[in-house]
Specification:
- By secondary structure, this protein is α/β, with parallel strands linked by helices.
- The protein has 2 domains: about 260 residues, Crotonobetainyl-coa:carnitine coa-transferase, domain 1 (Rossmann fold, 3-Layer(aba) Sandwich); about 90 residues, formyl-coa transferase, domain 3 (2-Layer Sandwich).
- It is built from 19 helices and 13 strands.
- The strands form 4 sheets. It has a 6-stranded parallel sheet with strand order 3-2-1-4-5-6, with helices on both faces. Strands 7-8-9 form a 3-stranded antiparallel sheet.
- Helix 1 packs across helix 8, helix 6 crosses helix 9 and helix 12 packs across helix 15.
- The radius of gyration is 25 Å and the shape is elongated.
């Protein structure tokens, strides 16, 4: 596997998704990620199901080693400072001020370790009137305006996976790798600060651009009308997705596939502007056509006519799809205690090779002793820390 930042050591201080997901992305790029966890219980995601090794934990913690150490005790914090002598990045997603209370604030760390990159993820930013508020995925979705673009106002329910957590992880990994690239030239570390709410505002760039241009706020169906995107039921009660975008050829291809050339002369739909303005009516017309045949037949017809489409899969269908199997997107890591651990490859390829994390998610404290030994702790020092309950 390609390893773009091989040799980089990341110390991850964080729980739930944002910090761990950013850490996993860095591990997939080649970093050695040390996950710092509380000796009692560790990352809360561990206990989303029994055994401290839940699917939710496994999803965001491949390629890491676990160090179980108590940061609330002075001996634990001193141990972390010794570890930082060998680290390139320290990553946290605590609320503002926590790192300072732990004696790990930027000013001290930068003075002592000038090459160290510190990256902090917060909900609302390092300062300001909301800085001390708790933040989770839904909070960032709601406040950024993105939720208004994906939630049905008639029946408001937050849909799908943890978008804000995962997208914040992506921006975090990008910021850290950019700082590493700069340090290769300057020799100096950086303080990187990322807030979930600003990430999601940045991710909602298109609706904001339209708002600043027109003064009108978009709703959840405005973009899909402009992009001519549809999700339509078929005769077998399965759903297919269609995205025509702006080229006229895809509209005409769709009409050929559904055998409705007459719609090309319908005054509501003859021009793209009309199809956008009459999106709901067009959706109803297409729905009445698609319900006549099973999805597999529509897939064949759309493929023949070069219509941009895909079945709206359930997860088991994704795993079984021939293209996904060909790519080898899913793979298995072997854990000595838990056996085979299914995993998802990084989507990044380089020169025909994968990047990726080659370590299974760790058990709590699985690597504590080896990590401390790498930092030149003696066996007596490790025994003292264990005896005092500082490590596990």
């Amino acid at each position: 596997m390609k390893r773009f930042i091989d040799g980089v050591v990341v110390l991850e201080l964080g729980t739930f998704i944002t910090g761990p997901y950013a850490g996993q992305l860095l591990a997939e790029l080649g970093a050695s990620v040390i996950k710092v966890e509380r000796p009692e219980g560790g990352d809360p995601f561990r206990d989303f199901s029994s055994g401290g090794y839940s699917p939710q934990f496994r999803a965001y913690n491949r390629g890491k080693r676990s160090l179980a150490i108590d940061l609330n005790k002075a001996e634990g914090r001193q141990a972390i400072l010794r570890l930082l002598e060998r680290c390139d990045v320290v990553l946290d997603n605590f609320r503002p001020g926590v790192m300072e209370r732990l004696g790990l604030g930027w000013e001290m760390l930068h003075q002592r370790f000038p090459r160290l990159i510190q990256c902090s993820i917060t909900g609302f930013g390092a300062d300001g009137p909301y800085k001390d508020r708790p933040a989770y995925d839904t909070v960032a979705l709601a406040m950024s305006g993105l939720a208004s673009q994906i939630v049905d106002p008639e029946r408001p329910l937050i849909p799908g996976p943890a978008l804000a957590d995962s997208i914040t992880g992506l921006y975090t990994a990008l910021g850290v790798t950019a700082a590493l690239a700069e340090r290769a030239t300057t020799g100096c570390g950086r303080r990187i600060e990322i807030s979930m709410v600003e990430v999601m505002i940045a991710f909602t760039a298109d609706p904001f651009a339209n708002f600043f241009e027109t003064g009108r706020t978009m709703g959840p169906y405005d973009r899909v009308a402009r992009s001519q995107s549809f999700a339509l039921k078929c005769a077998d009660d399965r759903t297919i997705g269609i995205h025509l975008s702006s080229p006229a050829k895809f509209w005409l291809s769709l009409l050929a596939a559904i055998e409705r050339p007459d719609l090309a002369s319908d005054p509501r739909f003859a021009q793209r502007e009309g199809r956008v303005a009459n999106f709901v009516a067009l959706n109803d017309v297409l729905a009445a056509e698609l319900i006549r045949r099973p999805r597999a037949e529509w897939e064949q017809r759309f493929t023949l006519h070069d219509v941009p489409h895909a079945p709206v899969y359930q997860l088991d269908e994704v795993v079984a799809d021939p293209q996904i199997k060909h790519l080898g997107t899913f793979y298995t890591l072997d854990h000595p205690q838990h056996g085979p651990v299914p995993a998802v490859h990084s989507p990044i390829w380089s020169d025909g090779e994968r990047t990726g994390a080659d370590l299974p998610p760790p058990m709590l404290g699985e690597n504590t002793t080896e990590i401390l030994r790498e930092a030149e702790f003696t066996d007596d020092e490790i025994a003292q820390l264990r005896g005092a309950g500082i490590i596990a």
